[in-house]
Amino acid sequence: MSEKADIKVLLVDDEETLLEYLSKRLLREGFIVKATFSGEEAVAVADENAFDVAVVDLKMPGMDGVETQKQLKKMQPYLQCIVLTGHGAIDTALESGKHEAFEYLLKPIEYDTLVDTIKRAYEHKAQIQNAKFREEVEDIYRSGLGARGIKKAMGKLRKIYGID
Amino acid sequence: MELTDPQQHLKKVSRELPESKTESIEAREILRCVLQNTNDLVFATDLNGAIVSFSKSTEEVLGYRGEQIKGKHSKELAEDSVEFERMTGGLFEDGMVNRSDFPFRHADGHPVYCDVSFVALKDSKGKSAGCIVIARDITEWKKFQEELIRVDRLAEVGRTVSGTVHEINNPLAVINEISGWMGVVVSDSEGLNDDDRADLKTSIEKLLEQATRCRNIARQMLDFVRDSGPAGDSFDLHELLRNSVSFIFPELKSKDVEVLFDLMEGPLQMHSEPRMLEQVFVNLLTNAIHAIEEKGNGAGHIQISTRLDEKSVVISIADNGTGIAPRDQKKIFELFYTTKPSGKGTGLGLPICRNIVHKLGGAIHVESTFWKGATFVVRIPIRG
Question: Cβ contact (<8 Å) for A25 and B180?
Fold first, then answer.
């Protein structure tokens, strides 16, 4: 389960019992999971912890899925959002999905599909994050800093991207 | 308004009758014309209520021949003669009685609902002479009204169902998730002997199966009541048919069913709802596969053909499966009617197909010989 060990997942859904069991199962499989029961709670949690993937229900009282996604993305631009939508609401979801969800999943979700989608979302995140990281590294080298300057800048970058 | 006009006229006629001979002949001629040509039931009775003359339509609407009506007491034409007498009891005091939605009785026994007016006839001395009855058959109007109410109620049911099904989906998802969790725990648990573990695993699988079944019903239910906008699209029907077949290819392969295309040459461009049509074809093809599987003697094939008929495309999907028993043929398009074993069919597939086809301005019907196979024929306007 080492491939999943590092995947940090944020779950956002107002159906508490569902989330309870979903997170138990994901945890047991080796994901790092935080369950939140509203958009507001999710945003508060994401303010303090970094996540790789968020699974967000589209329809929630208070802050809805679209707004939650928007807020999360603002705080953590590389975070990938998987949006859960009800039957027949896909069109609405796509219309309002200007905030680039990684994927829309139809509710009720298949567990295996969800796990697979989370993994793919994580890979996607890692990819774009690494690409961006390399780009910035190259920028640093091109900038003509001395060896010490480069080391310092790299240290800063590692910190930003959470690479140890 | 038409109902009152001849009535007024008749009243006038009755008053003028005795005044002049010429006028009376003229009036009689008019009266004869009215009786011959009106669509309303018009008949005159004597003081005792026996019918003395009647319009042509009286025979037609109530299904009697002329000689059967003449002399008959008018109350015998009513569904409820007691009610008829009560209604007309005050006629000679009041001069006129009106009633809407009054049931007469057709010669073969069924009720004929009419809006009816009774007008008292008086002679020149003001003495009661009889009565004119004018009635209008409102059966069609009633049917139309009932249909309106039915459509309205269906729409209401649709909205309710849609809301309910959405609500049911949530607890279903929870059941699903908990079952999944139990499966994981049972698999990993060290305190279970092998028999118990196997038993629990099977039980949980069955739980999941049943939850999936509910979910499928819920999904189909939503498909059925969903209101799609008229957002049409242009597409090649032949490509759509091939796509529908490839959609169910895995099942065709596993059940050893061959699909033969007998399509018109080249692409067949049309303007309609491709996604909805695809749903219809996939549904019909799936039914065909099931019918072939149920027959169970292999060599199953499905033939898909297209042809043009005036401004419509006619698509036939023929299989050599079990066919449909004559008594089932009338019912297969009814909601919740299914011939499949409990748990296999929801009785929603064909009603959904019919719903869609009607929505697209087309028609669907089935031709089948029992145990030889069935052919579903779908007709869709080229430009919906």
Answer: yes
Model confidence over B36-51: pLDDT tens digits? 788 888 888 988 889 9
Question: Are residues A86 and B169, on separate chains, in Cβ contact within 8 Å?
Answer: yes
The interaxial angle of helices A111-142 and A16-28, nearest 10 deg, is: 70
Which residues of chain B neighbour A86 with C-beta distances below 8 Å? 166, 169
Does residue B177 sit at the A interface (CB-CB below 8 Å)?
A: yes
Nearest-angstrom CA–CA distance, A152 and A161? 15
Q: With an 8 Å Cβ cutoff, are B181 and A87 in contact?
A: no
Delineate the domains of chain B, giving CATH numbers in brackets: 18-137 (3.30.450.20), 229-383 (3.30.565.10)
- Report pLDDT for B341: 67
Q: Which of B86, B84, B93, B85 is nearest to B120 (CA)?
A: B93
Q: Model confidence over B159-170: pLDDT tens digits?
A: 777 778 878 888
Where does residue A5 rank: exposed (0-12), middle (13-18), buried (19+ CB within 10 A)?
exposed
**Coil, helix or strand for A151?**
helix
A102-111 burial, b at 16+ Cβ within 10 Å, e below that, comes to bebbbbbbeb
pLDDT value, residue B3: 44
Q: What is the pLDDT of residue B47?
A: 86
The partner residue sitting opposite B170, judged by closest CB among A15, A24, A25, is: A15
Q: Which residues of A touch B (CB under 8 A)?
A: 15, 17-18, 21-22, 24-25, 28, 86-88, 107-109, 111
Which residue among A25, A88, A108 sits closest to B173, beta carbon to beta carbon?
A108
Task: Find the mean pLDDT for residues A119-124.
Answer: 94
Q: Do B178 and A111 touch (CB under 8 A)?
A: no
Q: CA-to-CA distance for B204 and B239, rounded, in angstroms? A: 42
pLDDT (0 to 100) of residue A149: 78
Give me the residues of chain B with pLDDT under 70, please. 1-23, 223-231, 341-346, 384
ipTM surpasses 0.85: no
pTM score: 0.51
Residues with Cβ within 8 Å of B125's Cβ and at least 6 positions away in sequence, in order, are none
Q: Does B372 touch chain A (CB under 8 A)?
A: no
**What's the confidence (pLDDT) of residue A121?**
94
d(CA B128, CA B120) in angstroms, rounded, equals 7
DSSP B339: -
